[in-house]
Amino acid sequence: MHAADGKMALEHARDTYTRRMEGVSLWVLPSAQIIASDPGDAAALFAPAEDKIYRHPTFYKIPDGITHI
Amino acid sequence: MYTTDLSGKKAKPEAAITENPAKLAAFEARVAADEFIEPKDWMPEAYRKTLIRQISQHAHSEIVGMLPEGNWITRAPNLRRKAILLAKVQDEAGHGLYLYCAAETLGVSRDEMTEALLSGKAKYSTIFNYPTLTWADIGAIGWLVDGAAIMNQVPLQRTSYGPYARAMVRICKEESFHQRQGYEIMMHLAAGTDAQKRMAQDALDRWWWPSLMMFGPPDDKSPNTEQSMRWRIKRDTNDELRQKFVDITAPQAEAIGLSVPDPALKWNETRGAYDFGDVDWEEFYAVVRGEGPVAKERNQARVKAWENGAWVREAARVHAEKRANAKIAAE
Amino acid sequence: MDSALPPLAAYAARLGDDSLILGQRLGEWCGHAPALEVDLSLSNVALDLIGQATHFLGLAGAIEGAGRDADKLAFHRDVMDFSNCLLVEQPNGDFAQTIARQFLFSNYQALLFEQMAQVKDERFAPIAAKALKEVKYHATLASDWVVRLGDGTDESKTRMVAGLNWMWRFADELFVMDDVDAAAIANGAGVDKAALRAAWDARIDAVLAEATLARPAARRPIVGGRVGRHSEHLGHVLSAMQFLQRAYPGANW
Ligand SMILES: [Fe+2]
Ligand SMILES: [Fe+2]
Q: What is the C-alpha to C-alpha distance for residues B102 and B168, in angstroms, rounded to an integer?
């Protein structure tokens, strides 16, 4: 992740790595220091991925006869 | 393919000779045992170079690949399709990011890789040098292009370089909806109005052959395949993957009433596979040389984004510096 | 404004149109952002907004009860029936202009949905509660960029000032109240937007101060979006967005 500052790194990490509800907490570490997401922000950070169901393959109905997809 | 060797040149054999034979043998043994090589492990220079080329080319393909589909985000036909397409193209940005990070562990910076892309020195998949003319192209890309990419990427989850393999695991997981949304678009079009059917067939006509070209030149014209397979950075030959792709895709086209634009396509009972016509390799090599129909547009779009973004990246850097200095001064 | 829509439906349509048009604008960035990471951020914001538009326009259609769904409203109305605020239809411009628009709008949306999440109406409140989580993040993201660009280089400051100046004339419209708002409040669905102004000013001023930027001078507000009097930009936004639905009437996608 490229970021000029810790906040930016945290936001970029959120937008990159939690697009499918994989997130509960984030740590970014610019070698020495660690900046962690505030648990109080968890809803704003991670809940919005909940209804992005179109990111999951089962959202698409493909007829039974069609394979390898 | 995103990872196909587009150099067309045989890697220099001297490279391997100059390495320490004991270290080289140990390395080859680890790879042969399907162990992962990690960034701090010793590796032959040729392996590092080949990986940098392959991973960065893969990353560039993800990034340039955002453009043909991005072309339709503002024109997606309904809210559902708009959200899906946005999410899909966004995923590709993420894939590019993971891959640039994997390549960086080999000692090349993202800026260097970007410069190589913008100057035309680095290659990316030939497929993205074709234009998206109608909405059906969005279906065709998801179905065929992502379908081909998945076919190539699944085995790479077991590639010998650890960071690359791990990036591929994540990418493959995310990739799984891309092909399905594309095929779903094609299904709707093929079952739709006459105008929609025409659109779908036209898209298949235009994307079929370039999709087959994605797997790269025929095996007898891919000088580095053997080396790459031994190093486990390639797990199937170009022709093997191409055949597999045809065998899987042809019935999918038939199932929705579309016809593959190849009069030679025919099921061969004895081989248990489809026979198919010759790919126009002249066209392929021209596209590799940068003569694809929209190669200039793709390059221009990336150059513009990079140049127009320079002041933003610089501002972020300077701001962070100011904050860091202020913090030091306060302490 | 869509004169065919009853007041409560019109209220929902305004909310949906705001999110839709801004989401559409942000979608234009995809693949062209200043950095890969920013591409991911802007697409996330756009996705949230398209989701909000789907909910609010769906609600507008349901309240109207004439069989129009979210897509029908999004893709089959003309400029004079769109009721988004003028701010969201403004062109992306450079990255600073895009951030200025997002900064002013997301901070407004955050305050609005904070209140709306508490209203009695059981259709509006849950959509607002969900959207609140999203827009809080958008507001933080945009505010952080305002600070970075404002207190970055000379060039970024100049651009940030220009971006804010471009957008500032459309900020007042966000807080204008009319009959549709009054009807929504009377029905337990609406929010007194005028009452949000002070809190919005405070948030904006705090970020501008941190960004070492002056608040743009007060000026005569430009309004009209809520009643279908738009800028020249919206027609072009719609011509791209609605192209397929218009060119292939009745087709299923
Ligand atoms: Fe991808
Ligand atoms: Fe993909």
A: 10
Cβ neighbours of C141 in A, within 8 Å: 11
C134 vs A44: CB contact, 8 Å cut-off? yes
Domain segments of chain C as ranges:
7-214+221-247
- The span from the CA of B245 to the CA of B233, in Å, is 20
Contact A66 B252 (CB under 8 A): yes
**Res. B188: pLDDT tops 90:** yes
Q: Does A69 touch chain B (CB under 8 A)?
A: yes
Q: CB-based contact (8 Å) between B270 and chain C? A: no
ipTM over 0.90: yes
Pick from B147, B187, B316: which is nearest to A4 by CB? B316
CA dist B88 to A12, B91, B255, B277, C140, Å?
18, 5, 25, 32, 25
Interface of C with B in 171-230 (CB under 8 A): none
Those residues whose C-beta lies under 8 Å from the C-beta of residue B60, and which sit 6 or more positions away, are B96, B113, B117, B122, B123, B124
Query: What's chain B's average pLDDT?
Result: 94
pLDDT for A38 equals: 79
Residue B49, token pair as written in the block: 């170079």
Q: Which CATH superfamily is domain C7-214+221-247 in?
A: Ferritin, core subunit, four-helix bundle (1.20.1260.10)
Question: Which residue in C164, C28, C170 sits closest to C92, CA to CA?
Answer: C28
Q: Do A3 and B316 touch (CB under 8 A)?
A: yes
Residue C66 three-state SS: coil
In this complex, do B90 and C30 lie within 8 Å of one another by their Cβ atoms? yes
Which residues, listed in sequence order, are joined to residue B273 by a DSSP beta bridge?
A: B268
Cα separation of B215 and B233, whole Å? 15
B330: which residues sit within 8 A by CB, 6+ positions away?
Answer: none
Residue B32 touches chain C, beta carbons under 8 Å: no
Which residues, 6+ apart, have CB-to-CB distance to B32 below 8 Å? B230
B18 versus A59: the higher-pLDDT residue is A59
B51-105 pLDDT, tens digit per residue, is 999 999 999 999 999 999 999 999 999 999 999 999 999 999 999 999 999 999 9
DSSP assignment string, A9-66: HHHHHHHHH-TTS--S--EE--TT--EE--GGGHHHHHGGGTT-GGGSGGGS---TT-
Contacts of B187 in chain A (CB under 8 A): 62-63
SS3 content of chain C, % helix, strand, coil (to 5): 70, 0, 30
